[in-house]
Amino acid sequence: MWKFRRSGAFFGASFTGISVLAVAAVSDPLPPDATYRPLPTMPFSEVRRIDEAQKPDVMRRQRDLLDRRYDLSDRPMPEVMMSGGMKPVQDGIRVKLPADTSWDQLAEMTPAEIRDKNLLPEGFLPLPHVKQATGGQVFPNRQIDEIHVQEMRDLRRFDVDFDLPDNLTPEFPPPIFLTTHPELGDVSRGQLLTIKNFYEIMNGIITPVQMEGLRLLLTPFPQEEFNQTEDRKVADQSTGVSCLDCHSNFHTNAAFHLTPDVRPQADRFRLDTTSLRGLFNQQIHGSKRSLRSVEDFTEFEQRTAYFNGDHVSATRKGVNLPDRPNQVAMMAQMQNIIDFPPAPKLDPFGRLDPALATAQELSGEQIFIGKGRCADCHVPQTEFMDNNMHDLKLERFYKIGQVFNDFVTLPDGPIKTFTLRGIKDSPPYMHDGRLMTLADTVEFFNLVLGVKLTEQEKKDLVAYLLTL
């Protein structure tokens, strides 16, 4: 295959739908077997010019993929709001079925039949990054705009934009609940915590140790696409990105990047930002890395995750290595007091109170624990998780090696069990955000686990999930 060099990397001219010259900016920036990212050799101004020119095509092909896979329209549930009370929860199945196929028909087929007939809904496949070949963090517009207003720091990339509509993302800014002050409810005052306002908002509520941890979590540090070096993807030189730029108010804003621990680039899966609520009960961290403490995770993020898993790049860009016994411990202190939103219908053991729950919710709980097999991993007594990793073996249903927008669909492998507490606040779902609604998620697991739920049982299960 003919190749040429740009920004210190080789690019193949095999991309379809875009001219040979356009391949350079949107195809894989590394040879297929490469692990380390080479130093850039093209002037930043030229990189920016090329990326800006090709951005409309990059975004168009991602929109085409999303429109082919999903119904992205705004269809809220009547009178069902997220925990802050400002944003409705979206209703209905959004994954599109193959032609002349029903969910019931798929549920009656074996995984091999679905694979051989290519009938797995495309929305159940792993979701590509909007620019898989480059990767990096992509922030939703509301986060970008608020950070710019408060800090005059720019998180807007000139090569890509966020790819999902606002109706399918979490409430912004999300409420903040503390284990140390449950009587206060939401302590955010309806504001996004930033380095400019955190002290005023949290003074008198958290300890000095926690306050220092919060300051560090809100301090921007160098990151692959967002600092002053030539390979940044923002127009102005920047101090970088903070931890809470993704984990807005310790929750999630649906920002995403690529998992830093898989190579080569075309194989790395999209990684949706998870909520930090309930971190105090989690014993493993990271969808793949299985890090054993929040302190380990904090160090890993600062050393390599912000640099696409490349510590060499981190060193070149000005890596920040927080002090383990002091700074890292204080950051952990702050993260470990973030609570889940209230769930008034749950008793102390994570079960529904029959005096408060509806008949449909109680039915959904029985399905969750029994026929649906949800509680096999999402254990009610342990905050609806099991602190284990599981492999759903979704590749039973599809042909490995298909390519979607430069992403090769390989097996997901083991992924940690995420908590379901407050799950209505956290769309989209799965580790890569491939499922837009709770109804999609129920349909996905009904097929993958082969539990054959009826339509009414699926509705009851969704009603139950809304209580958590």
Explain this structure.
There is one protein chain. The protein has helices at 20-26, 44-69, 103-107, 111-116, 141-151, 198-202, 208-217, 243-246, 294-303, 311-317, 324-335, 359-369, 438-449, 455-465, and strands at 3-6, 9-12, 76-81, 88-90, 256-258, 270-272, 389-390, 403-404, 407-408, 415-416. It has 468 residues and is mainly alpha-helical. It folds into 2 domains: 76-129 and 343-465, Cytochrome Bc1 Complex, Chain D, domain 2, CATH 1.10.760; 141-335, no CATH class. A two-stranded antiparallel ribbon has the order 1-2. Strand 3 (76-81) and strand 4 (88-90) form a beta hairpin. Helix 12 (359-369) crosses helix 14. It is globular. The chain starts with a strand and ends with a helix.
Write out key terms for the chains shown.
two-stranded antiparallel ribbon; Cytochrome Bc1 Complex, Chain D, domain 2; 468 residues; mainly alpha; disordered N terminus; single chain; 2 domains; two-stranded antiparallel sheet
Briefly, what is this?
By secondary structure, this protein is mainly alpha-helical.
Q: Can you tell me the residue ranges where pLDDT is under 50 for at least 5 consecutive residues?
A: 1-30
Oligomeric state of shown chains: single chain
Query: What level of helicity do the residues show?
Result: 25-40%
Shape descriptor: globular
Give the termini separation: 53 Å
SS field, number of helical segments: 14
